[in-house]
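Fill in residues.
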């Protein structure tokens, strides 16, 4: 048995023993259906970029050292006009209601802010007076701003926030199991709904709300992708094949493959995330591409022979190429595992396994359906057509040098664009654009400096050392250094509290600390191990170039002030996003090399590795360079992921083309004649499958996630460029004497 026969062994078995193959297939589908009851969605957004590095480990260690994990919900109140006296009174009522809500520990708001005890005009006074007068409140807001205190009211007086700390979860199980905060969130929503009106609108923001909001959008998208993607696949297959029987033979295996792909999540107990939610649709279009190649060959070749013979011939001539495309696509997905991010590693397993299973499903179901449905000679003769004319074939073979020169010029121009790319990652882009949480997050970031925490920690030999002159000076110096580095951000420590109480040169007294919430004190100072912390409220690190620059300055300032460590989600995002991009780029390079070597070894044609590498790098380079135009040069982890997947899929057409070229050469045709047949016959299938894949990926444009739209758009561009590269550059390369077999 040849190596070609081994690749199509499942199809040969289905052809020779259809009943047994059908039973096995139905049994496998039944198992997949039962497993779907365990399908789950990931709601921890931080897992999208955390990779177990030292930044993640230090952050986890700090959180574990706290008596309870700090959980915060932010309410953003906005008005189309500056707040008046009635609005301020309403906002104070909202604050009081929130403070009384079950599950709420403390509320920082316009109703709780006080002036420092040392303030000349309002020593220790509340920001809002008992009798509210809009003019007086305005004067107080101006005064507190001049005092250098960041108030919870925006400069234009049209928005304010309520920072709600939930009751501490101090039982041991709550640290290992995820605490359900939805009852408290529902209570908060009910409170702000009661106060909502035409004048003031309320919305929720905060890190803890990102996950639930993301899940709701993922569930909607997953349903939309599969319904719309399936409908598009059916319509396009009907247009291409022109007969319902042929459409059934091509489409049903693809639908079954997508169904099996969805069950892989539940069988492996992997949750659906923003990164992998497109996987079933991706498998659908990939499986459809293979089944269309098989169906077109069945329709257009040897119409006079018996159906079983024609099916067997399609399997023997097209099946090996389908097997190799599944293998190279799986290699591309497997290369994602070079990342240290767990979600990406999970996606690598899901992608590689789904593609291989999809190949098996297509190879087994195609002969079963072909024999069950039947393809008459009338269908074959009526619908025989070609998308690549003989004149086009002649032009391609005659313009070899021109096409190679053009390809080289485009490649060089695209390479120039690569130098303008820079790593970037914005966490909020993992939320749907329609999300009210995302909109509120933006308000907090732009008007109030953000809600993420950067923790700068000082370690002491013992708890008493903090109260010594030297120990206290260390904390004051660290606090001052960070305040100087980030004057527009809120900085909180024991030193800032002592300054507020009017004795900046001494630590707070026990009586003063008793006035503050316990969870806040636990965040600022720890007894065992002895440490003091400075908390800086910041937006996302890469929200803008300015925010990135400021947060780099915070880290530098903390290090210069001898901080033991500086940790936090913004730190993780800034460092690990860049690390993930680097790891994915390494994986992509390895996937490219391994894939072409595997194909060269399989076809026993060493120089084929170079022949395949050149036209398949062009789509990647062009697509990556397009980010300069379409994404401001920002190279994100999702963009790098799209390039990896694009290579695995784009090389499929090259494999089908080379496979047909080798088959025709083995039949005794010369190089040009074999290329002509390959361009005309395989080109027809390549154009059809590219249209199908692009249409299938087009459903991502419906997504409310920017990351998914970018992922789909990059794949579509890569596939279109790959089609031209395979139709124009690949034949030109194969005509060169140095590359001929």
């Amino acid at each position: 048995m040849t190596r070609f026969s081994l690749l199509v062994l499942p199809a040969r078995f289905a052809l020779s023993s259809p009943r047994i193959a059908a039973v096995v297939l139905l049994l496998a589908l039944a198992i997949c259906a039962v497993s779907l009851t365990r399908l789950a969605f990931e709601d921890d957004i931080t897992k999208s970029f955390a990779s177990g590095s030292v930044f993640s480990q230090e952050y986890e260690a700090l959180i574990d050292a706290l008596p309870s994990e700090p959980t915060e919900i932010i309410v953003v109140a906005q008005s189309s006009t500056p707040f008046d006296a009635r609005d301020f009174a309403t906002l104070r009522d909202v604050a009081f209601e929130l403070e009384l809500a079950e599950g709420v520990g403390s509320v920082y708001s316009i109703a709780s802010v006080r002036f420092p005890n040392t303030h000349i005009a309002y020593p220790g006074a509340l920001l809002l007076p008992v009798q509210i007068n809009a003019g007086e409140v305005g004067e107080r807001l101006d005064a507190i701003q001049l005092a250098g205190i960041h108030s919870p009211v925006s400069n234009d007086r049209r928005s304010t926030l309520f920072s709600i700390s939930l009751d501490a979860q101090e039982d041991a199980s709550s640290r290992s199991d995820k605490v359900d905060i939805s009852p408290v969130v529902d209570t908060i929503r009910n409170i702000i709904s009661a106060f909502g009106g035409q004048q003031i609108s309320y919305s929720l923001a905060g890190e803890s709300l990102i996950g639930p909001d993301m899940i709701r959008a993922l569930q909607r998208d997953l349903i939309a992708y599969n319904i719309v993607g399936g409908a598009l696949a059916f319509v396009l297959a009907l247009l291409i094949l022109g007969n319902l029987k042929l459409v059934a033979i091509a489409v049903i295996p693809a639908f079954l493959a997508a169904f099996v792909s969805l069950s892989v999540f539940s069988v492996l107990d992997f949750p659906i995330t923003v990164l992998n939610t497109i996987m079933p649709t991706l498998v659908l279009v990939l499986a459809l591409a293979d089944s269309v190649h098989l169906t077109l060959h069945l329709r257009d070749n040897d119409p006079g022979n018996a159906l079983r013979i024609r099916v067997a011939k399609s399997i023997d001539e097209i099946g090996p190429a389908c097997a190799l495309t599944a293998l190279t696509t799986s290699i591309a997905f497997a290369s994602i595992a070079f990342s240290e991010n767990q979600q990406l590693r999970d996606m690598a397993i899901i992608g590689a396994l789904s593609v291989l299973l999809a190949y098996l499903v297509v190879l087994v179901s195609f002969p079963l359906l072909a024999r069950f449905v039947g393809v008459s000679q009338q269908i074959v003769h009526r619908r025989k057509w070609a998308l690549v004319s003989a004149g086009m074939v002649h032009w391609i073979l005659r313009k070899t040098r021109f096409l190679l020169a053009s390809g080289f010029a485009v490649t060089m121009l695209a390479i120039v664009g690569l130098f303008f790319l820079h790593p970037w990652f914005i966490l909020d882009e993992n939320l749907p654009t329609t999300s009210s949480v995302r909109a509120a997050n933006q308000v907090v970031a732009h008007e109030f400096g953000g809600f993420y925490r950067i923790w700068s920690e000082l370690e002491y030999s013992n708890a008493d050392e903090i109260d010594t002159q030297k120990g206290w000076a260390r904390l004051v110096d660290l606090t001052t250094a960070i305040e100087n580095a980030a004057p527009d951000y809120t900085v909180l420590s024991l030193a800032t509290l002592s300054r507020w109480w009017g004795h900046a040169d001494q630590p707070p007294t026990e009586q003063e600390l008793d006035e503050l919430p316990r969870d806040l004190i636990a965040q600022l100072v720890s007894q065992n191990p002895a440490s003091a912390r400075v908390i800086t409220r910041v937006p996302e690190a890469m929200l803008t170039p300015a925010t990135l620059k400021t947060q780099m300055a915070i880290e530098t300032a903390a290090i210069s002030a001898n901080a033991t460590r500086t940790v936090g989600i913004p730190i993780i995002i800034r460092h690990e996003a860049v690390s993930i991009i680097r790891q994915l780029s390494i994986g992509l390079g390895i996937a490219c090399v391994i894939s072409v070597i595997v194909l060269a070894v399989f076809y026993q044609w060493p120089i084929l590795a170079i022949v395949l590498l050149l036209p398949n790098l062009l789509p990647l380079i062009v697509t990556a360079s397009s980010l300069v135009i379409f994404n401001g040069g920002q190279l994100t982890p999702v963009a790098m992921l799209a390039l990896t997947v694009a290579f695995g899929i784009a090389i499929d057409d090259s494999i089908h083309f080379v496979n047909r070229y080798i088959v025709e050469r083995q039949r005794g045709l010369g190089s040009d004649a074999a290329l002509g047949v390959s361009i005309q016959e395989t080109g027809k299938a390549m154009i059809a499958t590219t249209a199908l894949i692009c249409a299938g990926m087009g459903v991502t444009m419906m997504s409310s996630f920017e990351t998914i739209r970018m992922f789909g758009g990059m794949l579509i561009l890569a596939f279109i460029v790959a089609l031209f590269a395979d139709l124009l550059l690949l034949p030109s390369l194969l005509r060169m004497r140095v590359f001929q077999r």
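The mean pLDDT is 86.
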